[in-house]
Amino acid sequence: MSRxxxxxxxxxxxxxxxxxxxxxxEEAAIYIGIGVTKFDAMVAEGKMPQPKRIEGRxxxxxxxxxxxxxxxxxxxxxxDSTWDDIDGAKASTVR
Length: 95
Known about the structure:
With about 100 residues, this protein is mainly alpha-helical. It has helices at about 10-15, 25-30, 35-45, 60-70, 85-95, and strands at about 20-25, 50-55, 55-60. The chain has a domain at about 20-70.
């Protein structure tokens, strides 16, 4: 029994998901945990990063999304500075 190309074949990413650094607009919104409309508004407000261009495609850098997310205020209105004490400790030992 011969198989037609494409029949019963699975894409590699379906079998073994490949971690990606670049995300589409929809994926970036999901990654942050919000809807696309809210994500678009946050990009326009400068709270989320602008996309990079790969030819004609807009791609959001996962690292930039992480940084922007870290800069968002917590529920009580403060920006989480959890890493400040660690960064300060590194700076004092590097001297």
